[in-house]
Specification:
Blueprint (H helix, E strand, L loop, with lengths): L4 H11 L5 E9 L2 E12 L8 H16 L3 E4 L11 H4 L2 H13 L9 E11 L1 H6 L4
Antiparallel strand pairs: 1-2, 1-4, 3-4
Helix pairs in contact: 1-2
């Protein structure tokens, strides 16, 4: 299988990490838990100033690796390691999302008024790991 440079970068980062935390930026409506919109999926932030372009590139790489059966992405985890998501909460992108939602929520007709960060992890699939050559 051949990989793009963005996919290779993600794969290298994953091999060098014990855990590979990712998030999904969502928009919610207070009092209506079923009302949700995904603002940005498969978000991997490594530095506070990561650009939207870079984060989208990583996200696309993660999405395609998942479709190829290389990576498994789980947003259902209920427990996480303290500190894994600090960079996300302090990132410029999450700050911009929060400000955007706060501004739009001033309009009574706004559908969404709460930014939300859904925590998850990416990991290699068992089938991908089994396909790797043995030393």
């Amino acid at each position: 299988m051949t990989y793009t440079s963005a996919q290779k970068e993600v794969l290298c980062s994953m091999t060098q990490s014990r855990r590979f935390p990712i998030v999904r930026f969502e928009l919610h409506r207070e009092g209506q838990p079923d009302l949700c919109s995904i603002a940005l999926n498969y978000v991997r932030i490594e530095a506070l100033a990561d650009s939207m372009e870079l984060v989208k590139e990583r996200g696309e790489a993660l999405r395609t690796l998942m479709e190829q059966g290389v990576v498994y992405i789980d947003y259902t985890t209920r427990a996480w390691v303290q500190g894994d998501y600090d960079v996300y909460y302090r990132s410029k992108l999450y700050e911009e999302l929060c400000h955007m939602v706060m501004e739009s929520s001033k309009d009574p007709a706004a559908v969404f008024n709460l930014p939300y960060m859904r925590k998850g992890y990416a990991s290699f699939t068992p089938s991908f790991l089994a396909s790797l050559p043995r030393p």
